[in-house]
Write a structure and sequence with these properties.
Length: 520
């Protein structure tokens, strides 16, 4: 079946009941950095994102706003969700909406296939449903309410009471896949990562799986069940299928076999859907399970998961309007260990912008280029002999390229950036120690001056290539100023250190300009 030749990576598809906040943008950026990295490694990388548009949550929001759910979804997709991609500079290869015909038709094919194979039956269910999560909750998922909900059990994520539902629905025989799933986690320890997420999923499955209610008949905003149009497909069952319908399942076999299986980047709130329900659905259909499900942590505000419903949401543009998309991308990828929760603070963002991006990286680039202009008329020196200090920088370039590549291999984006920053720091230390401005005062030191500037230029070229997935705009400007040929985003990242320099530099505007305004 799959030849798995591609690096296919996905974000969750986002609910269109509201506009994006920085938590959503965080997921987008992480997946985009990984996709860009793999593209620059010469792989056929393919990034999918999109929107989740069916279900009760969207229906209720649309009704409350006096429009049809499709009108509501269209409005939010065009005015909020697609623009988010430009706001944080996402280079996605496709954008799927669950209301796309290509999705609806092929999701129905999948369902019919499961039905024909005997994995679906009619049953009854009563339980507590959280519309915010679009999920039936077990008593152990609920917590004691506070404020107006004191004395009631509420959803641990949304802090509001669940609704008691009693339904006659179609069910997926998920309970029969418990052993196969446990074997999968055992045989492929990387299937669910990080380790904390893997452990949580294993202990959940070990408690025994129930069958899953996969249709609803009390409302009609969804994909019709193909053999019974009085039911619509449960929104999660519908949504998970986006990963294959967008990749050609049911309509483009060649594409599907090239792309599938995917790496799924998701927030830990939706880990079970991706690491339990989704592989069970695929096993039932005889389709290969995903390559990996990575559950990242939450952005916290005031110690709680940031969310619009709790009024702690921050719009991505609040940050990018002042700091730019590169700074947004850098900050969240660098400051938070990917896989763990992290608290956002304006102070931390400002401090890192100033010390790491503006002073550490931006100034280094401006100073070196200015010196090449001043001392060498803009011509990048070609040097025959390098000193030990120059060779040390060369060594650092190679070492951090390898370390960053290794870190990305296990999705440790923060570790990759930290490794690359060793080169930023070493180059700054090198310039301070070599004092090219002092060497320039005496023509007898000309050869040494040229070796220092050539070494620094090469270091900057390496940095431009390595940092391109994280700060694409700044590195594109830097690459042009360095006289690099082609696009920096087309340079092989696993060989970033091999770059030896262009013919001439051109002037470089400040990569990370000083920010005067008070923010927050
Ligand atoms: N529609 C479902 C996903 C279906 S995927 C087949 C959904 N959508 S969502 O819009 O509520 O959120 C999706 C994702 O946004 C989360 O899994 C997570 O990746 C991201 N985040 C939402 N809030 C977040 C934080 N506060 N912090 C980090 N990520 C957050 O769930």
């Amino acid at each position: 079946m799959s030849d798995g030749s591609s690096f296919y990576i996905t974000t969750p598809i986002f609910y269109v009941n509201d506009v994006p906040h920085i938590g959503h943008a965080y997921t987008e950026v992480a997946a985009d950095v990984l996709a860009r990295w793999h593209r620059q490694s010469g792989e056929d990388a393919w990034l999918l994102t999109g929107t989740d548009e069916h279900g009760q949550k969207i229906l209720r929001t649309a009704t409350a706003n006096g429009v049809t759910p499709k009108e509501w979804a269209d409005r939010l997709v065009e005015t909020a969700w697609k623009p988010l991609l430009a706001t944080v500079d996402i280079r996605n290869d496709d954008f799927i909406r669950t209301t796309d015909v290509r999705h609806e038709v092929n999701a129905q094919k999948f369902l019919q296939h499961l039905y024909d194979a005997g994995h679906i039956y009619t049953g009854e269910y009563e339980g507590f449903y959280c519309v915010g999560c679009e999920e039936y909750k077990q008593p152990s998922d609920l917590i004691e309410g506070v404020g107006e909900y004191v004395g009631q059990q509420v959803c641990a994520i949304h802090s509001i009471p669940c609704e008691l539902l009693h339904e006659k629905n179609y069910f997926f025989r998920m309970s029969t896949f418990g052993d196969q799933l446990l074997a999968l986690y055992e045989e492929n320890p990387n299937f669910v990562q990080p380790e904390s997420a893997r452990n949580e999923v294993i202990s959940f499955v070990k408690q025994g799986l129930s069958d899953l209610s996969i249709s609803r008949s009390s409302f009609d905003w969804g994909i019709k069940v193909p053999w019974d149009d009085s039911h619509v497909v449960y929104v999660w069952f519908d949504a998970l299928l986006n990963y294959i319908t967008a990749a050609g399942y049911g309509h483009d076999d060649e594409k599907f076999s090239r792309l599938w299986p995917a790496t799924h980047v998701v927030g830990k709130d939706i880990l079970r859907f991706h690491a339990v329900i989704w592989p069970a659905m695929l096993l039932a259909a005889g389709i290969e399970v995903p390559r990996q499900v990575f559950g990242h942590g939450w952005l916290l505000v005031g110690g709680e998961k940031m969310s619009k419903s709790k009024l702690t949401g921050i719009a991505p543009s609040q940050i990018t309007d002042t700091f730019g998309s590169d700074a947004f991308r850098y900050y969240f990828m660098r400051a938070i260990s990917f896989g763990q929760d992290g608290s956002f603070s304006w102070e931390d963002l400002s401090a890192r912008y100033q010390s790491e991006l503006a002073n550490g990286f931006g100034n280094l680039a401006s100073r070196v280029i200015a010196m090449v202009v001043r001392y060498c008329d803009g011509e990048i020196p070609v040097v025959g002999e390098f000193s030990d200090a120059d060779e040390l920088i060369r060594g650092t370039e190679k070492r951090v390229t390898d370390a960053a590549t290794l870190a990305i291999g296990h999705l440790a984006i923060h570790e990759a950036i930290a490794a690359i920053w060793e080169l930023v720091d070493d180059l700054n230390g090198y310039i301070t120690a070599q004092e090219p401005w002092a060497l320039a005062k005496d023509p007898a030191n000309r050869a040494r001056l040229e070796a220092v500037l050539a070494t620094a230029m090469r270091g900057l070229g390496t940095l431009a290539v390595l940092l391109s997935p994280v700060v694409p705009q700044a590195t594109a400007k830097l690459w042009t100023a360095l006289g690099g040929s082609g696009l920096v985003s087309d340079q092989r990242i696993d060989r970033a250190w091999e770059w030896t320099g262009g013919p001439r530099v051109s002037p470089l505007e400040a990569l990370f300009p000083r920010i005067e305004a008070t923010v927050g």
